[in-house]
């Protein structure tokens, strides 16, 4: 058991110096300290210590060379080494520990331990400023040599033009940046004056006297009240209450959130801080972060003040991220322009799940770094696709809170009107998509995948379709019982009229499941083959397909029409009449019978398109208001396969007798040509 005493005599005066590994020519115990100085505010110390030049480990020639490089040949009061020999070394200090409250100097004497808190711990390192002085001397000598060779005509100073500039008044924001700059801090540190000290050796009487202050001067209770505590008070010092602990804690950085501190704030401030840091969040996640027992109605009231609804999720408002009187860290653009650009990105995501970065940059005219920041707030980059909204569509929130969705929709309509005025957007591109389009997940399905999906659907419904087919077969068998024949006598209908190849339907043979030309090859199912299948029914089905297709897409190539027909076949049940074999000739004749015309587009001879892609068919009369415009366009493209927009504009105005503007011409082109050949 050892008694511990707290010595206060050297409180806030005691420093610990840590010296580097001493060289053989220098011993710190008996070395002479030539000078010492300190900057108290910075706790910076410089010590000048003598080097034993008589030590056998000291290289005299090296010391003379260093002194010559630093001071040159002349010796005066400004010389660093007056003895023309490097006989001293300067040490500069740096703080080893920023917080020294845990450290103390201890002296043990006669069964007592005396502690004195340290005011600072400084590490001393050699200073090589004499090398900078040597370099400066070398540059001065070189400049003097060059100056001696110059002409004597330089005696008269040349007339130089002086530019006078008036400094602008410094703003408060510029002043704060200047005060926090490294150059300003270095200047402030250099302005503090050195305080010269007197060094006393280890065995000096003054040192012996000062060393006595390391011991506690009185052993009474008044001197050591901190060390005499009851067990409960000692426990309280070790583990203070949580309230006191929170009061003593420093304020966390703005980008660091403590959930314990966050929940002590008002609900509106909690939501604002969370949204400012997360930026995009579903409502369910926000409720989980706010803790149990939080009123969802109050949360909905507060969230609408700091965030906007995008695809069922909440995205922080632009003015929360970019407050007034701030600017972009990349381009210096003011906050108002940044808010408009970010609102445009948010609005684009209310229309679609995908946004193209180039399109945003072209509309907003902002630098790429700012646009990238906007997109990274709420989306994820996909290679060769664009930027996709980072969260899925929250359908649950939309169904539970239709009033909130409607209110947010009205707010977006107001923002859309402002964006239309600022960026001069076309109204066609500002039409919002339906909500169902937002809720649907974007799927990129190829033609082969669609065929496979149709095959799977056919197999699922095969049982029911088989029963219906057997019922139809029985009815047809009862009408004509004399039409039975062997399978070997069946002949498939051919098209001898045209030399063209029939349509390739081999990819869809798997759909027939034992069917030849759409009918089963069983012995009892031959009644309807070889001419007994009504031809008008096939024509009606084919005509219905062609009519519906051209009403959706007014212009099609033969290649595209065949692709759409194959997809239509894949969706039909087994035994359908269209499986009886449709040739290219039949399909083209049906297209002409439905009111369509073949457009002889003069494609260039060196084109790489296939023959089916060169055959273009168009619906001549659709019964709408654009029939006349469409016919004029088709006549134009029958003369040239590539036409300028101004030519189309002029021709439409002349033929139709209307003075159409650019937007109306664009609409005519969009309505008339839904597909591009």
UniProtKB/TrEMBL annotation:
One BP annotation, GO: tRNA transcription by RNA polymerase III
Pfam families: RPC5, RPC5_C
Origin: domain of life: Eukaryota
GO annotations of cellular component type: RNA polymerase III complex
Domain DNA-directed RNA polymerase III subunit RPC5 C-terminal: 433-675
The protein's name: RPC5 polymerase
Native species: Ceuthmochares aereus
Biological classification of the source: Eukaryota, Metazoa, Chordata, Craniata, Vertebrata
Residues covered by region (Disordered): 135-158
InterPro entries: RNA_pol_III_Rpc5, RPC5_C
Basic and acidic residues composition-biased segments: 135-144
């Amino acid at each position: 058991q050892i008694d511990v005493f707290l010595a206060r005599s050297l409180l806030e005066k005691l420093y610990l110096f840590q010296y580097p590994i001493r060289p053989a020519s220098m011993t710190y115990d008996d070395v002479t300290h030539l000078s010492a100085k300190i900057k108290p505010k910075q706790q910076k110390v410089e010590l000048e210590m003598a080097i034993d030049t008589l030590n056998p480990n000291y290289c005299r020639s090296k010391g003379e060379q260093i002194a010559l490089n630093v001071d040159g040949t002349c010796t005066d009061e400004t010389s660093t080494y007056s003895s023309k020999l490097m006989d001293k070394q300067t040490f500069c200090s740096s703080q080893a520990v920023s917080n020294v409250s845990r450290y103390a100097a201890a002296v043990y004497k006669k069964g007592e331990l005396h502690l004195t808190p340290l005011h600072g711990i400084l590490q001393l390192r050699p200073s090589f400023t004499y090398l900078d002085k040597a370099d400066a001397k070398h540059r001065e000598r070189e400049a003097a040599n060059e100056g001696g060779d110059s002409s004597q005509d330089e005696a008269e100073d040349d007339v130089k033009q002086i530019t006078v500039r008036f400094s602008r008044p410094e703003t408060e924001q510029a002043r704060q940046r200047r005060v926090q700059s490294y150059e300003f801090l270095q200047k402030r540190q250099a302005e503090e004056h050195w305080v010269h000290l007197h060094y006393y050796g280890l065995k000096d009487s003054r040192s012996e006297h000062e060393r006595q202050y390391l011991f506690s001067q009185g052993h009474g209770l008044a001197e050591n009240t901190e060390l005499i505590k009851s067990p409960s008070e000692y426990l309280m010092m070790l583990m203070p209450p949580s309230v006191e602990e929170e009061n003593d804690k420093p304020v966390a950085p703005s980008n660091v959130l403590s959930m314990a501190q966050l929940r002590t704030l008002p609900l509106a401030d909690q939501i604002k801080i969370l949204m400012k840091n997360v930026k995009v969040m579903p409502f369910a996640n926000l409720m989980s972060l706010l803790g149990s027992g939080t009123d969802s109605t109050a949360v909905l009231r507060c969230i609408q003040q700091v965030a906007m609804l995008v695809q069922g999720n909440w995205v922080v408002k632009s003015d929360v991220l970019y407050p007034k009187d701030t600017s972009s860290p990349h381009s210096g653009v003011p906050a108002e322009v940044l808010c408009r650009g970010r609102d445009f990105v948010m609005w684009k995501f209310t229309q679609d799940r995908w946004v193209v970065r180039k399109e945003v940059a072209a509309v907003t005219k902002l630098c790429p770094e700012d646009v990238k920041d906007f997109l990274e707030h709420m989306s994820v980059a996909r290679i060769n696709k664009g930027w996709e909204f980072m969260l899925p569509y929250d359908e649950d929130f939309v169904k539970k809170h239709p009033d909130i969705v409607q209110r947010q929709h009205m707010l977006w309509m107001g923002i859309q009107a402002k964006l239309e005025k600022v960026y001069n957007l076309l109204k066609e591109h500002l039409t919002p998509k339906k909500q169902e389009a937002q809720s649907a997940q974007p799927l990129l399905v190829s033609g082969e995948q669609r065929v496979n999906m149709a095959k799977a659907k056919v197999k699922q419904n095969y049982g029911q379709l088989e029963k219906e087919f057997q019922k139809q077969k029985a009815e047809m068998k009862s009408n004509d019982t004399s039409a039975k024949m062997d399978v070997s006598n069946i002949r498939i209908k051919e098209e001898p009229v045209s030399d063209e190849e029939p349509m390739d339907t081999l990819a869809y043979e798997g759909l027939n499941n034992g069917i030849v030309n759409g009918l089963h090859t069983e012995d009892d199912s031959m009644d309807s083959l070889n001419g007994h299948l009504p031809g008008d029914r096939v024509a009606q089905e084919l005509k219905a397909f062609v009519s519906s297709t051209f009403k959706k897409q007014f212009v099609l190539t033969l290649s595209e029409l065949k692709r759409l027909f194959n997809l239509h076949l894949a969706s039909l049940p087994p035994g359908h009449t269209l499986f009886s074999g449709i040739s290219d000739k039949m399909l083209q004749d049906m297209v002409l019978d439905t009111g369509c015309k073949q457009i002889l587009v003069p494609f260039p001879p060196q084109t790489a398109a296939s023959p089916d892609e060169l055959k273009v068919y168009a619906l001549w009369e659709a019964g709408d208001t654009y029939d006349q415009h469409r016919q004029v366009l088709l006549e134009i493209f029958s003369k040239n396969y590539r036409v300028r927009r101004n030519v189309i504009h002029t021709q439409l105005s002349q033929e139709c007798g209307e003075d159409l503007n650019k937007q109306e011409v664009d609409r005519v082109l969009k309505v008339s040509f839904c597909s591009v050949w």
